[in-house]
Amino acid sequence: MTAIFFAAGEADAAPERVRFNIAAKPYPESLIDLALQADISLLGASACGGGLAGGIKGAYTVEEALSQLLARAPCAWRVVGSRSVQIRPADPSVAAQTTSPPVAVSEVLVTATKRVQSTERLAVAVSVISAEQLAATGAADPGETSGQLAGVLTTNLGPSRDKLILRGLSDGAFTGRSRSTVGTYLDNTPINYNAPDPDLRLVDVERIEVVRGPQGALYGGGSLSGIYRIVTRKPDLLHASAQVSGSRSWTQDGAPSGDVEGYANLPLFDGAAGLRISAYQESQGGYLDDINLRRDNVDRTRRYGGRVSMSFQPNDIWTVDLSGTVQHLKSEDTHYTNRASGLQRASRVAEPHGSSIALVAATVRGTWGWGELVSSTGFVRHTYSSLYDASAVVDLFTANGSERAVYSDTTRTEMLVQDLVLTSRGAGPFQWLAGLYGSDTSETSPATLMARGPVGPLAAVYRDERRDRIFELAAYGEAALRVSPGWTVALGGRAFKISGKTTSDVVSERFAPRSFVRRADFAGVSPKVSLQWETASGNLVYAVISEGYRAGGINSGGARPLATARETFAPDRLRNYELGAKLHAFDGRLVAHSALFYDVWKNIQTDQFRPSGIPYTANVGDARVAGLETELAYSWDMGLTLQANALVSQTRIIRANPDYAPELTRGLPGAPGLSGGVLATYQRRVFGDLALRVVGEANYVGRSRVTFDPALSPEMGGYVRAKLSVGLSGRRRAAEVFITNPANALSDTFAYGNPFSFSQVRQVTPQRPRTMGVTFSTAF
């Protein structure tokens, strides 16, 4: 195990002195004694190796004790929170090639709650995937991490086109005007609004943090079911390092794939600043053949991008982090086929998709003895576009006898976000935070349908020029009071105001043009209350009530205007009742996180399609969701670590919107009643500094339906994803071989692909066939 956590007390990594009595013993054991005696959280004890530490005895501050205890150790330390210390190898290149097993589900410090805290001390269901686990499993994007976390699922329309789903709280499989139910963040900057997940490649990443349940009190409207947060590695101000890795793989009945990625870190100005640069390029080979277009492996995807980060630390109080990130992705065709077509399809035209995202961010952090101030500023530009074969509905848009039509839509979203939060520090019984948030979002989304008559080229027969501007202001806060030893009660909330303006200009060949400018304002409060009990051994039981909220909006588009009742959609709100436990046993070898939750979701927003294939957003009614999620981890001395996760849930519509579907009684679409996964890692030294690592991973996604509409709701899911890898790693070099989908299953992962033929043809998205590959990496 690589981290140790203990119940919070009055001692802290503050200037007060603690009386230590630590005997000479190996570094990890000495650090365990230090954490016990100082009553702090300590992460990464194994980074110091198994060398012998000298003993210390007397009254010291925690900083003085660490400095003396680790004076000759091959590791470094730093205080990262009021009661938290992090240990890392002194040589970062060694850390890059670490052979430590994946960190157990609880053994990390997180910042997703706006302060540095141990996951074991949070009254919320939070999971973390460490950088070591990402490397061990080869998870390169959010979709590949989903099976390692309880209740985390994604749709499978294609790269940068998917939706993240937490706890079965699904508003449908499609993306449109409604805001995402899961907020995706890169460090402190949100990177999605109503867009699909941008599918950032997880390069040079410190960890993934997932917080389940509505997080409206801290994060606002885009967190109805939780937060998915990517935490990047920051520049090291003291050590230069670099790493390069690459892989090559071969897919049965498909084209080969390959990627290369790397980073370089350079200290500047005698340790007062640092520069870190990472970059990557990837090609995912296609595996679908189009018999009409006479092309093989049509669904190839290319992705490339990078990140530049700079950190400045002029003194012990202030730190400034600057970063710029960019990614471009292009899929040459979609990934669905027709039922019983195997890996073949018969299309009239290719259906490519492209996505580009760029963001710049600045974080200024000031730390004093009594508090910490963090200012986060970010600007995001996300552009994505798709082309569909719309021939199946061309008669609804033109009467010129066309037999072929294509629909093109492009969305460009620009977000400017400012978040300012002040938090308390220290180990007193009263803790608090207060924050101010503001965002300015601008979205342009032109859509065009072009048709070809009996003669001549494609010509536009329908166009919708839509523009949206959304402003959000919020004030939020949270206060926690330790009312008695082990018992803490917390109360928080967020007051917000959201103002939107929508402009639409529709031109259609068959109907008169129309335009409108409309405004909508929404305001409210998202509260949260929690009660937690920590035992002396570090176990925790908690209860929480929290809420999430999404503002309403305005529909536009379509050759014909929508009915008056569907011109707008109302806000929806989700209230979560949760009882959870975080337990340890067998000297910390077994870690268990479980949560029982019951959610009341009122006025659910969902993105759907009209018979013409044009999207709109509707409120379908209310739902009740009940579930149990569990994550377990166990480590053996022989080098084996086993992790398992599962979600069992039941969803039920209790009040259907009669204007949408009065007979609606089934549960939420895209929400299987059962999902789960297993991850096993075995490693041992074979000789010298060379280590063997074997990793096996499998996850199951149960059956669900793709839409709310009972008349048009094909089933999907009921499949297993699996991966096996074997590798050797040394001090600076590593190599592995891997295989995915070893059974070569072609299960239907997503019963959707094209909105214009969805109601006429049974669409399926098969798994990528059996793929074998090799990976090499070297550190400098």
From TrEMBL:
* Residue span, TonB-dependent receptor-like beta-barrel domain: 277-727
Under the heading PANTHER family, the entry gives: FERRICHROME IRON RECEPTOR-RELATED, TONB-DEPENDENT OUTER MEMBRANE RECEPTOR
Instruction: Write down any Gene Ontology CC term.
Output: cell outer membrane
What topology in the membrane does the UniProt record assign? Answer: Multi-pass membrane protein
Identify the main location: membrane
* Residue span, TonB-dependent receptor plug domain: 121-227
> Which domain of life does the protein's organism represent?
Bacteria
Q: What family does the entry list?
A: Belongs to the TonB-dependent receptor family.
Which UniProt key words apply to this protein? Cell outer membrane, Ion transport, Iron, Iron transport, Membrane, Receptor, TonB box, Transmembrane, Transmembrane beta strand, Transport
Q: What is the lineage of its organism?
A: Bacteria, Pseudomonadati, Pseudomonadota, Alphaproteobacteria, Caulobacterales
Entry's localization field: Cell outer membrane
- Note whether Cell division occurs among the keywords: no
Q: Which biological process terms from the Gene Ontology are attached to this UniProt entry?
A: iron ion transport
* Protein name as annotated: TonB-dependent receptor
Q: Which InterPro entries match?
A: Beta-barrel_TonB, Beta-barrel_TonB_sf, Plug_dom, TonB-dep_rcpt-like
Coiled-coil residues are none
Pfam families in UniProt = Plug, TonB_dep_Rec_b-barrel
